[in-house]
Design brief:
95 residues, alpha/beta, 3-stranded parallel β-sheet
Length: 95
Amino acid sequence: MPITLVNPLDETVREQRKAAPKLDTLSGKIVGLLDISKPGGSVFLDRMESLLRERFGVANVVRAMKPTFTKPAPEAIIDQLLKARCDVVIEALAD
């Protein structure tokens, strides 16, 4: 059975950008976890937060949640993560 990959982006032309540099370690870092409000997302992120703290020694985890998964994150949510000075943000979804 062939596998069909679907591009989740719309047709908007986007500026080409370089990817952010890879972190050497998560130890001592601040990690943002962005829940996009899909059912089960908080369960997944709760487990991820535990693993980040236990196995990777992150200094702090900042949690944020979008009001709906159907739209981009509001500026207030992005500002919350920026003000927390997150070294990395993981956006997660689940069903």
